Amino acid sequence: EGSSIIKVVNLILTQAIRDHGSDIHNEPDEKIMRIRYRIDGILHEAFALPRKFHPMVVSRIKIMANLDVSEKRIPQDGRFQYRLGTNVVDLRVSILPTVKGEKVVMRILDKTGFILDLSKMGFSPAVDSNWNHLIHRPQGLILITGPTGSGKTTTLYASLNEINTPDKNIITIENPVEYNFPMINQVQVNTRAGLTFSAGLRSILRQDPDIVMIGEIRDLESAEIAMRAALTGHLVLSTLHTNDAPSAVTRLVDMGVEPFLVATSILGVLAQRLVRRVCRSCKKEMKVSADELQSLGLGKEFLIRKFYRAGGCRECHQTGYKGRVGIHELLRITDGIRSLILRNGADDQIREMAVKNGQQTLRMDGLRKAAEGLTTIEEVLRVT
Q1: CATH 3.40.50.300 in the chain, residues?
Q2: What's the CATH class of domain 1-110?
Q3: Model confidence pLDDT, tens digit, residues 186-235
Q4: In angstroms, rounded to a whole number, what is the distance separating the alpha carbons of residues 135 and 302?
Q5: What is the DSSP annotation of 162-217?
Q6: Which residues are paired to 78 by β-bridges?
Q7: On the chain, which terminus has fewer CB atoms closer than 10 Å, C or N?
Q8: Rounded to an integer, what distance in angstroms lies between the CA atom of residue 287 and that of residue 125?
Q9: What is the CATH number of domain 118-383?
Q10: Which of 150, 353, 376 is nearest to 361 (CA)?
């Protein structure tokens, strides 16, 4: 019985990693235990097992993650490593008691899939040159924003990799540290021991840093420390959870940060999403009329471009999509936008001015990628 449960758990893990999943969901139901994988941002049914296996599978995962096997009443968090061939994969475990039993979600942190090359981020030429200019500035605050799972950490890490030179002292504070960097000092948040983002940040600033990376700005305290650091000769990179770039600016003001602090410290905000790549093996060309292009905000010059819709084949598990590509918008803080922030301008006013300055919106960047045959119009509209 014990060895068969080990085999079941190994099968669940192996299949998810081979399918390039980002999360594994193990859910108890009345008669079954359901296994689902999140692949390219979408949850898919993988398989189901009889309900009787559920407690044993959960116990096995708890043992692997060094959690309390007998505790079933409260949530538990842990992590473990799983070896698949020569590949060692980190998994973050979250266990939640529900009325039907414990639900387990495992986040797969596959380091082999980490892209640390900025040129592979899918930036448009304009975003690429502007972003490179920003991250090479000597001081100021740069933000990356987007929902959970939109690739913010990957972009942060690729940016750090780009500016990681022997003449720079780079320190990060993260929760959790997802990738171990050579020649970068990484600090793991430990709230139980009192090492919060704010406490860690204060100590980091006494370590003579040139560049500071904060995994996420979560509250007024960490926001203010980050901005004061940006104003005193440090380059600070961090993330926020907002829908687009302009609303990241107003989010900081809503947190309680003084508008003058935001206006003077912030250099730029990159908003991003991940859209699914249309499967090369089964994509189907589609006709898009001039009226349809106009309704999407695209000019007549796009009539000669080829657009595709998703098909479905064995290669992409009948989904029509395989892999993902980033779409971006980069808000550069110009003098005009700075004065808007100082006047407590709303995010739609900032957005309007940014677009007048030539900023591409997330949707427009996505539609241009659809016109390049990388994704579909339908997928861009779903995500933006």
Answers
A1: 118-383
A2: alpha beta
A3: 999 998 899 999 999 999 999 999 999 999 998 999 999 999 999 999 99
A4: 33
A5: HH--TT--EEEEESS--SPPTT-EEEE-BGGGTB-HHHHHHHHTTS--SEEEES--
A6: 93
A7: N
A8: 27
A9: 3.40.50.300
A10: 353
